[in-house]
């Protein structure tokens, strides 16, 4: 049986940063990330168009689409999911939702460890979930996504700098 590298576009509008990527199972072929004061609805589709132009691919060549489905900014999530669903409906292509916290955990795939993915929500709240990775690159979810109070995240805390550099969804 011959394996075919599927081309997938992923979109993330869950936080202040909008991003898109063109991927196969093994590689990221192109990506765009944009921090803006504009709403994601104004930037995400032009970003995807530019990424496709830069990569020499056409929308019709894409095999499937994915959007971050949470946790994150409710409005941002709706924008990304609606964009992906609209494209998929028009092109009759499959789509999937992806957890923002699980995607963060995949940065540590291939390590034999427990991973706690954390993403700033708002004020002193963070989204979190636990995952476990093995040396083979498998990542398994150990807990559901939660929103928890993080007392370390206050503007006067000396440790706030570490948490302030986490991706923000608000």
Question: Main traits of this protein?
Answer:
alpha+beta, five-stranded mixed β-sheet, disordered C terminus
Structure description:
By secondary structure, the chain is α+β, with helices and mostly antiparallel strands. The chain is built from four helices and nine strands; from the N terminus they run E-E-E-H-E-H-E-H-E-E-E-E-H. It has a five-stranded mixed beta sheet with strand order 3-2-1-4-5. Strands 6, 7, 8 and 9 form a four-stranded antiparallel beta sheet that branches. The termini are far apart. Mean pLDDT is 88; it is low at 157-170.
Brief rundown of the structure:
By secondary structure, the protein is an alpha+beta fold. The chain has helices spanning 40-55, 74-91, 100-105, 160-164; strands at residues 8-12, 17-23, 28-35, 64-70, 95-99, 113-122, 125-133, 139-141, 146-149. It is built from four helices and nine strands.
Helix content: 25-40%
Looking at the chains present, what oligomeric state does this protein adopt?
single chain
CA(first)-CA(last) distance: 46 Å
Mean pLDDT: 88
Rg calculated over all Cα atoms: 17 Å
Q: What is the strand and helix layout of this fold?
A:
Layout: E1 8-12, E2 17-23, E3 28-35, H1 40-55, E4 64-70, H2 74-91, E5 95-99, H3 100-105, E6 113-122, E7 125-133, E8 139-141, E9 146-149, H4 160-164
Parallel strand pairs: 1-4, 4-5
Antiparallel strand pairs: 1-2, 2-3, 6-7, 7-8, 7-9
């Amino acid at each position: 049986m011959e394996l075919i590298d599927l081309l997938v576009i992923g979109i993330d509008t869950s936080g202040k940063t909008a991003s898109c990527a063109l991927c196969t199972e093994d590689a990221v072929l192109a990506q765009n990330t944009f921090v803006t004061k504009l709403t994601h609805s104004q930037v995400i589709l032009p970003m995807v168009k530019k990424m496709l132009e830069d990569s020499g691919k056409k929308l019709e060549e894409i095999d499937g689409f994915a959007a971050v489905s949470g946790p994150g900014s409710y409005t941002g999530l709706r924008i990304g999911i609606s964009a992906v669903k609209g494209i998929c409906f028009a092109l009759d292509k499959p789509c999937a939702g992806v957890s923002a916290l699980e995607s963060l955990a995949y940065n540590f795939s291939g390590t034999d460890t427990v991973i706690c993915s954390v993403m700033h929500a708002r004020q002193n709240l963070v989204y979190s979930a636990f995952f476990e990775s093995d040396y083979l690159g498998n990542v398994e979810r150990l807990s559901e996504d939660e929103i928890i109070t993080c007392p370390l995240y206050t503007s006067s805390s000396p440790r706030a700098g570490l948490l302030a550099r986490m991706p923000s969804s608000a």
